[in-house]
């Protein structure tokens, strides 16, 4: 599959010191219109910010094989096995064959859904608005702990021999991001570094792009990068699998909690099929499963329903604070 994105984007950083905190504070009265508008091919008659199913049944799709992808944060081969029992449950629930598709980048994942080659997916936090607006993604679920709590934090990490003791020490050096569509790997740290520390990429430090969170974490642990911004849920899972040792990492900063990967389907699935997909997520038995074994490391134990307009409000505000705008090609 092509690795070229189906979109273009520009990002400008115009956040004054302290503005981000005001934007993200709970109960904040400041209202910011979504910076990402639905592409012209989609309709949103009910105002929930996601694409409606087509009104003409002739525009619905009902594929014999459903294609599922998990956000490309780590080695796809690991996750083909992790998701295997869940996908078998989905096959039983939907009556369809379900195929795991190991995407290599956020851009390829979004392009696949926009082109009709991907039907069900987990998009990472930062990619959700782009997938919703450019690919017709309809998120409805998120992983949570047994007590319904959810989320992860962005951490700026370094290694013990880097000479970095605080965030300000990054000035004049290098910082690894993951990809421009990543919340914790790019957008949130860019806004926070600007607003809270007056540090701007290119002006104050050299930005590097690793492509994925595991690349950034391994790069820091091995001393290839002096520092990186990552999702600490990925960091915890890598430590739990003994991919890295806790003593190889030092945390310089930890953010507020963000929503984690959002799971959903493409907007034009036959509605009865979409309902069966939802049912599969909320009836899967985690106990003793490979999914439980993998995600318990970051505290997840089940799927919970979500509202894109509500749960991704903070992410859209980060995009607005960053001056991010997208156009879908």
Structure description:
The protein has 329 residues and is α/β, with parallel strands linked by helices. The chain is globular. It has two domains: 7-149 and 260-328, Periplasmic binding protein-like II (D-Maltodextrin-Binding Protein, domain 2, 3-Layer(aba) Sandwich); 152-258, D-Maltodextrin-Binding Protein, domain 2 (3-Layer(aba) Sandwich). It starts with 6 loop residues before the first strand and ends with a strand. The strands form four sheets. A six-stranded mixed beta sheet has the order 3-2-4-11-5-12, with helices on both faces. Strands 9-6-10 form a three-stranded antiparallel beta sheet. It has twelve helices and 13 strands. Helix content is 33%, strand content 21%.
Task: Spell out the key features of this protein.
13 strands, 21% strand, alpha/beta, D-Maltodextrin-Binding Protein, domain 2, 329 residues, 2 domains
Secondary structure layout plus pairing:
Layout: E1 7-10, H1 19-24, E2 65-70, H2 76-82, H3 84-94, E3 97-100, H4 106-114, E4 120-123, H5 128-135, E5 137-144, E6 152-158, E7 174-177, H6 183-197, E8 206-209, H7 213-221, E9 227-231, H8 232-240, E10 250-258, E11 262-266, H9 271-283, H10 290-295, E12 302-305, H11 308-311, H12 313-322, E13 325-328
Parallel strand pairs: 2-3, 2-4, 7-8
Antiparallel strand pairs: 1-13, 4-11, 5-11, 5-12, 6-9, 6-10
Helix pairs in contact: 3-9, 4-5, 6-12
Tell me what the CATH architecture of the largest domain is: 3-Layer(aba) Sandwich
CATH evolutionary superfamily of the largest domain: Periplasmic binding protein-like II
Q: Averaged pLDDT, please? A: 87
Domain module count: 2
Number of strands: 13
**Number of helical segments with 4 or more residues:** 12
Share in β-strands: 15-25%
Spans of at least 5 consecutive residues with low confidence = 1-35
Quote the distance from N terminus to C terminus: 17 Å
Radius of gyration: 19 Å
N-to-C order of helices and strands: EHEHHEHEHEEEHEHEHEEHHEHHE
Major sheet characteristics: 6 strands, mixed
Helix content: 25-40%
CATH topology call of the largest domain: D-Maltodextrin-Binding Protein, domain 2
